[in-house]
Write a structure and sequence with these properties.
Largest sheet: 9 strands, mixed
Function: Catalyzes the reversible cyclization of carbamoyl aspartate to dihydroorotate.
Bound molecules: (4S)-2,6-dioxohexahydropyrimidine-4-carboxylic acid, zinc ion
Subunit structure: Homotetramer.
Keywords: Hydrolase, Metal-binding, Pyrimidine biosynthesis, Zinc
Distance between the termini: 36 Å
Order of helices and strands: EEEEEEHEHEHEHEHHHEHEHHHEHHEEEE
Strand content: 15-25%
Number of domains: 2
GO cellular component, one term: cytoplasm
CATH architecture of the largest domain: Alpha-Beta Barrel
Number of helices: 13
Family: Belongs to the metallo-dependent hydrolases superfamily. DHOase family. Class I DHOase subfamily. Belongs to the metallo-dependent hydrolases superfamily. Hydantoinase/dihydropyrimidinase family.
Number of strands: 17
């Protein structure tokens, strides 16, 4: 038997363990064998993995691809180009675009644009507001991956539904079998402190962080867990930034609520000191927390397991919007969010190098769990025979420094990771059997990426 592609001479890593001198065989974009290099079939193309690590394709379930409507910041083509270059095979776009993704026709437009230009496979969330509770079944029919509610004001100013509407949304979403995720910051708390800080003339980047205190996040997590306990909805906490919020998630899990959670590389890497060192370019919502919260996020979230998934919250804005030329200027004039797709694997591999995480745990949180939580497993996030041949090849030993943001592939590349040194990098990205990134080049075609089918998931 001869197949289309064999990648050999890798260490294959899944949550079940690692197999040296192994590889993957692919036919028609699908995995047909995983095993020892010398037992894989003949192939039209044989790639030597040179001893690198091969893992299921990395799934980033939280990016802001900005299309439709905000293409001056980023679009599907540029976001998925960055994904390919970052070793990410599937991305899920957030709904705070223009128009917001709150109706089936808006979702269809987002999917159409993705089909036309994406380099890697993709999906999209839809937003739930006071206005569209009646459309929840239609949005399910239209193929949404899952639902999102913004509990507090953030970029895009999507108004939060009230608590009654949230309870009702949970009941209706439960009927669809899909999961509801939150931007979990209590809006009344952050609005109060934002107004008070502005009135007090506090304008430093660190003031932005302190205007959105941990209690706003912790309270929102606890309230949504209480509502999910009442309604039976499956819920998810996006971008958990603090140990206190991770502890609240752990309590919810212990209580039997179906709550999953994600954190991002920046909350694990930095402390709020980054606001004093880098300033407005590091501004993000929720903000990067102090060392105690960061350390407890590691303990409770990563070591004890409250956090299911890693994602980036990749959120491109122009250098002008990010106040790059005035990093310590009035923070209320700067916007929140920065890119992450090309530094997420390097950051996580650096944690592996530091002995804070095993390769197996990295793969579980960055490929397997995101696909399971959002209903894309095992088509995505696995190396099972018969599923999409998505895999990421990484060099866990490559030491490098992100010297210049323009080395990245997004349209706008502001990130606090400029100047940081990593141990580990993506070497190649394979989507349905095609190399989309190889040897430091994005080699895939724009438009190759396609929408991922959704099942009921975990
Ligand atoms: O910092 C943020 N940026 N937080 C969000 O919630 C949204 C995001 C964006 O869209 O830029
Ligand atoms: Zn986000």
């Amino acid at each position: 038997m001869s197949v289309d592609l064999v990648v050999r001479n890798c260490t294959v890593v899944t949550p079940a363990g690692r197999s040296p001198n192994s590889g993957v065989a692919v036919e028609d974009g699908t995995i047909v064998a995983v095993g020892r290099s010398d037992r894989l079939p003949d192939a039209d193309r044989v790639v030597d993995g040179e001893g690198n690590v091969l893992v299921p394709g990395i799934v980033d379930c939280h990016i802001h691809n900005r299309e439709p409507g905000l293409e001056y910041k980023e679009d599907w083509e540029s976001a998925t180009r960055a994904a390919a270059a970052g070793g990410v095979t599937t991305v899920v776009g957030m709904p705070n675009t223009d128009p917001v993704i709150d109706r089936p026709d808006h979702l269809e437009l987002k999917f159409e644009r993705g089909e036309a230009s994406a380099h890697v496979d993709f999906q999209s969330y839809v937003v739930v507001t006071s206005e569209n509770l009646d459309r929840i079944p239609a949005l399910d029919e239209a193929g949404a991956l899952g639902y999102k509610i913004f509990l507090g004001s953030t970029v895009g100013d999507v108004p939060p539904p009230n608590d009654g509407e949230i309870l009702e949304a949970m009941k209706r979403i439960r009927e669809t079998g899909k999961r509801l995720g939150f931007h979990e910051e209590n809006g009344e708390i952050i609005d109060h402190y934002t107004a008070q800080f502005k009135a007090d003339g506090k304008t430093d980047p660190i003031d932005h962080s302190h205007s959105r205190p941990v209690i706003a996040e912790q309270e929102a997590v606890e309230r949504m867990i209480t509502f999910a306990d009442e309604t039976g909805a499956k819920i998810h906490m996006f971008h958990v930034s603090s140990g206190s919020a991770a502890e609240a998630v752990a309590r919810g899990k212990a209580r039997g609520v179906d709550v999953t959670a994600e954190t991002t590389p920046h909350y694990l890497w930095f402390t709020e000191d980054v606001m004093r060192d880098v300033g407005n370019p590091a501004r993000i919502q929720p903000p990067i927390r102090d060392a105690d919260e960061r350390d407890r996020l590691w303990e409770v979230g990563m070591d004890e397991g409250a956090i299911d998934c890693i994602a980036t919250d990749h959120a491109p804005h122009t250098p002008e919007e990010k106040k790059v030329d005035d990093p310590f200027g009035n923070t209320w004039d700067a916007i929140s969010g920065f890119v992450g797709l090309e530094t997420e694997i390097p950051a996580l591999l650096t944690f592996v190098d530091q002995g804070r995480l095993t390769l197996e745990e990295w793969v579980r949180r960055h490929a397997v769990r995101p696909a399971q939580v959002w209903g894309m497993y095992p088509q995505k996030g696995s190396l099972q025979v018969g599923t999409d041949a998505d895999f990421t090849i990484v060099d866990p030993d490559r030491e490098w420094t992100l010297e210049d943001r323009d080395d990245l592939h997004s349209k706008n590349c502001v990130t606090p990771f400029v100047g940081e040194t990593f141990t580990g990098d993506a070497v190649a990205t394979v989507v349905r059997g095609e190399f989309v990134y190889d040897d430091q080049e994005v080699v895939g075609e724009s438009g190759y990426g396609t929408r991922v089918d959704v099942n009921d998931g975990d």
